[in-house]
């Protein structure tokens, strides 16, 4: 008899769910449905025995953010500009901007209360969210900073001290990629080279056709460095290179570093979080940094630095020395003088915004990747050019060759053309100059780095396509642009 009552309940509840799914007017009873569903799961744990066809309910599409709502959340963007350069400065939706302003006002209203009772708790909450997002072992491994450039300074400062204090010998080296970010390369000059360290640069060709090209070039550079008797103290590896842009096989390169006895590995993931999967346990680096204002919808400027607990992190210090010097990098970074800490505190609000998308940040990453590949292929076909890497080697940015007849012959030409596209056509896009190799016939020397973020529309890329087609049709070359 009890079994009959249970089955009868299953049948009635299954019908109830089906009615909820099929009849919009039932949505007003959603709280009641949720209570009944909770009761059902608590009292009938063997509900999996019910035929799946009776209980499989797809989520209503209305439960996720719509395209029109996405556009309204970014209505503060200039409507006259096709903004396909999210990779440079990122974006921030309206509700996060509102949260930012609320934090700013909270500080300005009562700074003492804010400092003593809210700032550290808020930053700890942000660190905890980041810890979970990147699958770190412990929240103590996460420090919140203003920018990845600051994180680079922290790690390279530690390396410079090791040279000056005799822990490293003059001539010991660090290894970096040829296409490392410009600010990072300058930081290496400022900290490592000045302290007496050598730099080994990994060279490979662009366009790049496979991960194996990068892995082979990296192993070759390591081998040559060791053959010359150098101790390689640090490897600085990009996760997603900036210009030209493609995804680096960081897991394989970190593994190679471990096999070859490189002391420590630092992954520069400035474009990482929100753009590509970031998993500290899988990557296995000693240090990892990423901006949250590029692809994670945070306002500028906020970033994090991960330091693996098993690594030597006690001598990491913020380059701005303040009252908490010596209390650990995470604590030091939480206060580096009077400034606006609001961007570091809105990460919970960012997470709320992201939760409105199907599959959250992973769904956004999939969406951006698929769209940027589709748009990249469309543009390359329209111009008779090629992509800078296979689709599987890009995330939310991809390199697209520009027509060679534009006459891009220097980095200065790229800057001029980019300005011309902005001012004359309302197109914002990053352009890269590729030095041609000897013997190339009509080489493609200019590549556009296009980005895709949730606010982008196909019209943005069509506007770019049409602008380039118009320039080509008019016989335009970069020589016609004044410096």
From TrEMBL:
Residues 93-310 form the Aminotransferase class V domain. Pfam families: Aminotran_5 (PF00266). SUPFAM superfamilies: PLP-dependent transferases (SSF53383). Keywords: Pyridoxal phosphate. Coiled coil: none annotated. PANTHER family: HERCYNYLCYSTEINE SULFOXIDE LYASE, L-CYSTEINE DESULFHYDRASE. This is Aminotransferase class V domain-containing protein. It comes from Ziziphus jujuba var. spinosa. The lineage of its organism: Eukaryota, Viridiplantae, Streptophyta, Embryophyta, Tracheophyta.
